[in-house]
Every structure is written in structure tokens, then in C-alpha cells.
Amino acid sequence: MARIRWTAERKRNAWVRTIYGCYYGLFVIFIFGPMIAMFILSFNARKGGLFFPMRGFSLHWWYQLIKPSAVGDMQGAMLRSIILALIVMVITALFATMLAMAFRKKFFGSGVLFYTIMTGIMVPGILLSLGLSQLLDVVGLSPAWWFSGLGVHVIWTLPFGFLVMMAVFNRFDASLEEAARDMGADEWTVFKEVTLPLITPGVVAAGLFGFTLSYDEFARTTLLAGAYNTLPLDISAAMSVRIRPTLFALGTASTVFSLSMIGLFLIVYTFLYRRTH
Amino acid sequence: MERTVLPPHPGLIGSEAIAPEFIQEDQLKKFRPGFSAAWLVAPSAIWLVLFLVLPLIFIVVISFWNYSLSGMVPGFTLEHYVEYFTSSIYSRTLLTTLRYTFTTMVFCLLLAYPIAYFLAMVVKTYKWQMSLFLVCMVPFWTSYLIRAIAWVPMLGRRGLLNNVMIDFGIIEKPATFLLFSEFALTMALVQLYVVLCIGPMFFSLAKIDKAIIEAARDMGASSLQIFRQIILPLSLPGVAIGMIFIFVMIMGEFATAVVVGGGKFSVVGTLINQYAATANYPRAAVNAIFLMIGMMIGVVFIMKLVDIRKQL
Questions:
Q1: Is residue B118 within 8 angstroms of chain A, CB to CB?
Q2: Which chain A residues touch B52 with a CB distance below 8 Å?
Q3: Is position A258 within any domain?
Q4: Taking a contact as any Cβ pair under 8 Å apart, which residues of chain A between 239 and 258 contact chain B?
Q5: Which residues lie closer than 8 Å to A210 by C-beta, 6 or more apart?
Q6: Do A14 and A99 belong to one domain?
Q7: How many angstroms away from the CA of B24 is the closest CA of chain A?
């Protein structure tokens, strides 16, 4: 086995890599540090407060979270948030796929449509909330999380899903569809048998954007959830009263849930990707 | 007798076989494969009009309406616009918002660019690139409200940062400037939004053809020259997109200002929220309109600096 010869360039490269590696490590600590501190503090003892040092270890704040009466309707809010996120996920994946398929060809108004979709990322959530809530008020409809909430959530998630699907179709080999058509398949058969299996990983990715972005969305729902709150709204309400370690426990639970959704997605994605490539 | 004009014979030099128009149109219809664009687009278009375009138009409409304590009354008045320009609160708030947005953008750029560079240029294998990139993207998929709350145990009077600084002897008494200050707000905003600009920067850096860099190196260019003349210009579109993301997100942001700023800070987002909460919708709408105008100017300015279309 040949020994590594430490030429000047090799040495320099090793140094560069180490320095960048350290910097990356510090960066990761910076973006995850506060959250990890919050996780740890959620296990603080009953007497312990919001700050370090820990006064001991307990599940008191977690129990407070699970106990039905303590924090209003947290469980209901979480359930609503999950249901809403699931609906948003399906609609985002569906709409994003349809839009990206339409954008494979030039059509009338495609430029305007493209910028309108992208406006969904740009517009501050509070603006949409304000505009739509007043519009509904004038028309005489009352807002609800499954109606107006759903509406603005899709506006927020659609651009992300759309960009994912555009990227998918950019690398898509259209000759496969041509071949199927030449062999006499009609449009539906082509889509079902050729296109869809190939783009499934992308559709799943678009759906993931829909789910996680909707599940955590707060500003867009502020004036539009109606009588029943979603989870971020409940968190914000609890927060404005007083920040207690129960919120840390809730934050931990919610983050763990988000992370497990991403984990689940990665498993599904790699499975689908391996099958199609 | 009229002679029918025949199309030039196909195959002759300089001639094109032009089929009569009716055939072309027919063929186009027949051979344009795929579903019809209209049907694919219709559901999304209706959704966008109902939940995006109409609400935005309506904000402009109600900004002209009369406001009294009993509620809004349809009408036409410029009162709220006049007030916006005569009272200094609003323009001051907009300027504050712009200032800390700009500071945050600078910090995000300085922090994120080396990370994107590291991922795209220093890390060699695709697998490692993607996994390290995904680690950076994880916070994007978690609740930013909760991440904002997570700053409380760090920055408070008895927070971790104060403890560490006292332990190291940097300060003697706990500093009170940490939580509820512009410093805290900026730091929290950087931490919350920095991941947004890593993606675009990383993609534009990864797209740079390594052969160009090799060629420059072979011809004797120094690392600094390579960076300044090749890597930096080619990655600028990604930088611009990342900056636009951060700019629009932070301009309209208000939750962080409430949690970390402790309500001490008046930013445009909180101002709109306050007016909306007290049902003073016309005033909220006027502020919203000027926020949008400010955002548009900012985005156009960034796009003027860098030609983003190169990236797309």
C-alpha cells in the first residue's frame, strides 16, 4: 500500500477541509442549539423555570401538556392541524403536478400565471389573512380552518411544490411518452403507465412541502381559522399569556413530529426512487 | 384562365415545403400530445384568484373606506393615506423594518455563503453533499414560532448566553440588553432565516463547471483570482435569489418581533397585526400597501443588481 505523500497542496487541502468542517459544525450548533436547549429544559423539575441551570429532572411539564384541562384544547388543535396539513398535502401535490405538466408547453398566459403562483411566496402572511378575512366578512361568509385556512395554506405551499415538479419535468425524458403514444396508448394510459411512475418521487416531495409548511404555518391563519384554532395559533395564544416550560414540551413534541414526518418521507422517497431509477 | 399557384417543389434548393394552412392547423391539433393545458391549469388558477388575487385587490379597496368605531363603511376617502404621510410613526416603522431586514440579510449572506461554498466545492462526494445540505434544511421544516420561543432560555437575564459570559469573566452582572433588544431580534432572525438562502447559493455554486476552475488553475491563476473572477460572478444569481427570499420573509415578519422583541419593537408586521386586532382595517390596509410597495422596490433593486434569469 502506497503511503500518502504529504505534498504542499495535499496539506493545504487538508487544512482547508478541516477549517470548513469546523465552521460547518459551529453553524449547525448555531441553528440547532436553541432548540436543543429547549428540549432539555422541557424536562426541568417542577420548581425549575425557563432557564438553565436545571433544577432536576421530571416529566412534570410533559404531564401538564397531556393533562386535558391544563392548556385548553391543545389536542384538538393538534388534530385539526394534522388534518389540515394532510388536505393541503394532497391538494399541493395534485395542483403542482398538473401545473408543471401544463408548463411543459407554452400556453396563453403562462407568464402571468407563473408570477401569480410565485407571488404566493412573496406576500406576507398577515396581508393575505387581512385581505381574505375582510372579503369574507363583506360577502357574508365566516372563516373556518378547513375553508379559508385551507385556501391560504395552499397559496403558500403551492409555489414550493410547483418548483419541485418543474425541476422534475426539466429532467424528464419525453421520448418515453412518445414511444408509448406510438404504440397506440391514449393520454390516460400514457400518464398512468409511463409518466406517473417516473414522477412519483417528485410528487411525494411536493406533498412533503405541503404537509410540513402547512402544519407549521401561523401568520396566514391568524384571522382565518374561525372558531377553532390550529396548533400554531394555540401556541401563539399560550405564548402571549406567559411562556412556561409546558410550551417547551409542546415545542419538543411538535418538532419531533415534524422530524419524524421528514424521516418517513426520506424512507418513502428512497424506496420510490430506487424503484424508478 | 387562372393558374393555381403551387407551392415550390420540395427538395429544390432554397425552397421550403409549405403545407397549406388548414393542414398545418389540423396536424398541430392532432400531434400536440399531452392533456390540454387549460384543464390542467384551471383548478389552480381559480384557487389563486379566490385566495390570492381577490384578497390583495380587496386590501387596496378597503384602504379607501371610511373607518369609525362601529366599523368600516364603504366609501372613498384618502384620509388614511394623508395620515400615513403626515404622521411620522409609519414611515419610521417602515425604516426600522428596512434597517433590521438589511442587517439580517448581511449577516445571513456572510454566514451562509461559506457554508454553501463548503458544500459545493470542498465536499467531494454527492452523497455527503446532499446529507450535509439536508441537515441544514431541517429547521426550514419545523415551526418557526417554536424556534423563536427556543431563544428565550438563551437570551434571558438568567439565560445561557449571560451565564457563559459571566463564567468567562467577560461581564460581571447579567446583561439586560440581550432579550427584548434589537440585538436579540437580529440574531434570532438570522438564526431563523439563514437556512433559506443556503439552498439557492448551494445550487448555483454546485452548477459551476469544475473544468473552468481547473483550466484557470492550470493557467496560473491564484485562488483569490479564481474566486473573484469565476466563482463569485457565477454564483451571484443564487446569492440574489437567496437574498430575495430572506428580504420578503423578514419584511413581512411579525411573530419573532413579538416573542424575542417582547413587544418593544414596532415593525410593520406588528403594526398591521395591531390594527387588524383592533378592527382598524383601513389603517392596517394602508400600512400593508406600503409594505408591499417597499418589498417590490427591494426585489426589483436586487434583480437589477444581478441578472437572475441566468440561474433559471
A1: yes
A2: 116, 119-120, 123, 128, 155
A3: no
A4: 239-240, 243, 247-248, 250-251, 254-255, 258
A5: A85, A88, A89, A90, A91, A92, A93, A154, A157, A160, A161
A6: no
A7: 18
Number of other residues whose CB lies within 10 A of the CB of residue B170: 10
CA distances (Å), A45 to each of A30, A33, A147, B146, B156, in order? 26, 21, 42, 21, 19
Domain spanning B88-310: which CATH class is it, in words? mainly alpha
A29 at B interface, C-beta within 8 A: no
Find the domain containing A49 and state its range.
Answer: 8-60
Residue type, A106: K
State ipTM: 0.87
In this structure, the answer to whether residues A112 and A219 fall within a common structural domain is yes
Nearest CB among A37, A107, A116 relative to B160 is that of A37
- Tens-digit pLDDT string for chain A (277 aa): 556 677 887 888 888 889 999 999 999 999 898 888 888 888 887 776 777 777 777 787 788 777 765 556 777 888 899 999 999 999 999 999 999 999 988 888 888 999 999 989 888 888 899 899 989 988 988 899 899 999 999 999 999 999 999 988 988 888 999 899 999 888 889 999 999 988 988 899 899 889 988 988 888 888 888 888 888 888 888 877 777 788 888 888 888 888 888 888 888 888 888 887 6
Amino acid at B113: Y
